[in-house]
């Protein structure tokens, strides 16, 4: 244990919520820096966390202000009904030690665990609810290649050598997912049917034309689709043009997350659901994670909490915007109805200020995804824009029944690149896939595993950057609301292509 840290409270006491004089509910930290206050002031200091005397020594222990003490059930998504069964993942049983501790059981954490365990590393993953509970078990199931930025921009932003490695990692990310699914025989309705992007207005069409040129320049297997061609691929006459990238595809994401968890478990990883990390403290020879069900000591720690990041590490949650995205799903469509929608089975996302994405699943259900209100909701009223838009695309869906409505949080970064951070020795954070996490979080997990098994920064396929926080982060819901309103205006007023 580091010299300036000493345990001050037993766990049950620690988890007690305290009334704070400021009116804010605040938790007690497991440890506090040693200082010279009289006991009564020391206690006040623990409560207020603002003490002048120990303000500078404090950042060695980090706590969660709004802890998730109870495992939350899965949202009532389509996947919760259709995904393969989950492996039992009991909570961390008391105090344990491991080489690598991973916080977060989504694609990032599970892929890291799998790739480490396969190399014989002793790895333990803790997840507040169950593997796949976060965005990984709720997303659109689109396995999309590439980053948000086109390849030339990636090279411009990161230089020739790293830029090319990033392009290779992200372009090959779907193939990595399909390979994992095949190798571990994961039942998740996978199909390698390609990713479409489509535009309905002039700015969107210009972006698609430029992306098509840029991807072709870098040898990606993409084809530009004109108005007639995109109509054939989508069954809708809304679009001016499109692009098909044959590397993409689709899957049932909760099934994939559960399959990853089982593959990691079979390779030797320990996976504990219902286990919330409530504080992270530096010790002499590693780290100590306090959880609601025990303590986990580890030489190295990976934070893989993405859009559900909390105060476990200072500034991490403020380095991303945890935006909500929403999905509505229909009952299985008739064959006649389905024939007119994405006949090749591809997935699609629109190039517009406000992205809409959709696909058919293995049972001919249409899954329509897009912007969401900034709160958890399963109320069909909150999904009216999506369901109305589907009818605008395919009027034959007028009388179709919408059966499932769910949403979740993903992480947007300021530069729209995924972020790898190493804010302290033996600590890695990986997050911020900007809506491309099915393939990219899987690939990033493999990169984190490479880093932890000795790969140098100059060989990694992602940059390691310092944590930079969004200014005025606490106002993000307001910012997102304004951004959505502004985006809707721009999409409406942009000239037709
Ligand atoms: C509605 C929706 C649709 C999307 N559609 C697509 C798509 O079609 N294609 C695509 O590529 N991407 C899509 N995304 C994005 C994609 O799902 C994410 O980028 C990806 O799943 C991120 O994986 P992750 O493992 O980093 O995070 P998550 O899957 O969010 O996992 C983070 C986990 O950390 C856990 N956690 C947080 N704090 C703690 C703690 N203190 N202790 C223990 N556990 C903790 C949470 O419980 C959570 O399970 C979508 C996202 C959403 C929400």
Textual characterization of the structure:
By secondary structure, the protein is an alpha+beta fold. The protein folds into three domains: 5-63, no CATH class; 78-139 and 254-321 and 414-478, FAD/NAD(P)-binding domain; 189-247 and 322-413 and 483-493, D-Amino Acid Oxidase, subunit A, domain 2 (D-Amino Acid Oxidase, Chain A, domain 2, 2-Layer Sandwich), CATH 3.30.9.10. It has 14 helices and 23 strands. A hairpin with a 2-residue loop joins strand 15 and strand 16. The protein starts with a strand and ends with a helix. Bound molecules: flavin-adenine dinucleotide. Flavin-adenine dinucleotide (FAD) is lined by residues 64, 103-109, 126-129, 133-136, 138-142, 144, 276-277, 304-308, 310, 312, 325, 327, 357, 369, 407-410, 431, 433, 435-439, 441. Keywords: Oxidoreductase.
């Amino acid at each position: 244990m580091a010299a300036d840290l000493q345990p001050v409270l037993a766990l049950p006491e620690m988890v007690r919520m305290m009334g704070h004089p400021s009116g804010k509910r605040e938790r007690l930290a497991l440890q506090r820096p040693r200082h010279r206050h009289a006991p009564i002031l020391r206690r006040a200091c623990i409560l207020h966390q603002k003490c002048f005397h120990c303000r500078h020594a404090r950042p060695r222990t980090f706590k969660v202000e709004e802890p998730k003490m109870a495992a939350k059930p899965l949202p009532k998504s389509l996947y919760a009904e259709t995904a393969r069964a989950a492996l039992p993942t009991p909570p961390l049983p008391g105090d344990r030690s491991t080489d690598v501790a991973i916080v977060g059981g989504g694609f990032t954490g599970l892929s890291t665990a799998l790739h480490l365990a396969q190399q014989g590393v002793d790895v333990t993953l803790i997840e507040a609810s169950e593997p796949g509970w976060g965005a990984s078990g709720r997303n659109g199931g689109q396995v999309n290649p590439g980053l948000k930025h086109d390849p030339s921009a990636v090279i411009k932003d990161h230089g020739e050598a790293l830029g090319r490695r990033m392009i290779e990692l992200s372009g090959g990310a779907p193939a990595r997912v399909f390979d994992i699914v095949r190798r571990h025989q994961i039942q998740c309705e996978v199909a390698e049917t390609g990713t479409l992007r489509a535009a309905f207005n002039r700015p969107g069409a210009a972006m698609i034309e430029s992306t098509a040129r840029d991807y072709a320049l870098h040898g990606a297997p993409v084809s530009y689709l004109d108005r007639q061609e995109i109509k054939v691929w989508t069954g809708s006459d809304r679009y001016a043009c499109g692009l098909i990238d044959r590397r993409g595809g689709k899957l049932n994401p909760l099934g994939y997350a559960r399959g990853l968890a089982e593959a990691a478990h079979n390779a030797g990883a320990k996976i504990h659901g219902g286990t919330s990390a409530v504080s992270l403290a530096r010790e002499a020879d590693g780290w100590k994670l306090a959880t609601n069900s025990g303590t986990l000591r580890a030489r190295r720690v990976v934070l893989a909490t993405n859009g559900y990041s909390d105060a476990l590490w200072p500034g991490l949650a403020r380095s991303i915007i945890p935006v909500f995205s929403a999905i509505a799903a229909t009952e299985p469509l008739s064959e006649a109805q389905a024939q007119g929608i994405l006949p090749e089975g591809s997935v699609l996302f629109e190039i517009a200020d406000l992205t809409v994405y959709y696909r058919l699943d293995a049972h001919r259900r249409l899954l329509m995804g897009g912007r969401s209100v900034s709160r958890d909701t399963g109320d069909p009223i909150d999904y009216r824009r999506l369901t109305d838009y589907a009818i605008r695309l395919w009027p034959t869906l007028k009388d179709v029944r919408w059966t499932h409505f769910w949403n979740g949080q993903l992480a947007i970064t300021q530069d729209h690149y995924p972020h790898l951070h190493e804010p302290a020795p033996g600590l890695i954070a990986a997050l911020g896939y900007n809506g491309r996490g099915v393939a990219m979080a899987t690939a990033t997990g493999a990169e984190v595993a490479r880093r932890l098994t000795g790969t140098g920064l100059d060989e990694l396929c992602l940059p390691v950057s310092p944590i930079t926080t969004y200014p005025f982060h606490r106002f993000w819901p307001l910012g997102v609301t304004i951004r959505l309103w502004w985006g809707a205006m721009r999409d409406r007023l942009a000239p037709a292509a």
